[in-house]
User: Which sequence fits this backbone?
């Protein structure tokens, strides 16, 4: 096969298309996890707070905090990871604090989503975009 400009453009477009397929698969996996957690119920905004850094210099240990006054369970998802669910926290009736903090691993710049199931059976969510830098340069 002779490498012409047209063939080079077609190969480049094919490479871009193939590179984008995992992103759609991960997004679909995240949507499936959310539907399984909520049972297909509507998700609102409200009594949940997700704290994550805007920029993480190391994707291997990204600190996050989630809290809610009335949550009985909180699911944390990293939508750009190959396996989106990263943590589930359950709180009992006698929980003194309905908050948790941990460090998660992120495959790259992506959205982190926290969904809380409240005591009344409703669901709320909060989202944060975390930019993961390479080499720790902050840019």
Assistant:
């Amino acid at each position: 096969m002779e490498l012409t400009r047209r063939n080079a453009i077609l190969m480049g477009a094919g490479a871009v298309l193939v590179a984008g397929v995992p992103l759609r698969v991960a997004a679909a996996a995240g949507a499936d996890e959310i539907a399984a957690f909520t049972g297909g119920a509507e998700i609102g905004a409200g009594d949940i707070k997700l704290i994550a850094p805007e920029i993480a210099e190391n994707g291997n240990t990204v600190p996050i905090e989630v809290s809610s006054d009335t949550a009985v369970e909180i699911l944390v998802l990293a939508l750009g990871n190959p396996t989106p669910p990263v943590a589930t926290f359950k709180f009992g009736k006698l929980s003194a604090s309905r908050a948790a903090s941990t460090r998660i691993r992120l495959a790259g710049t992506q959205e982190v989503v926290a969904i809380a199931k409240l005591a009344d059976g409703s669901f709320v969510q909060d989202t944060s975009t975390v930019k993961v830098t390479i080499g720790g340069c902050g840019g």
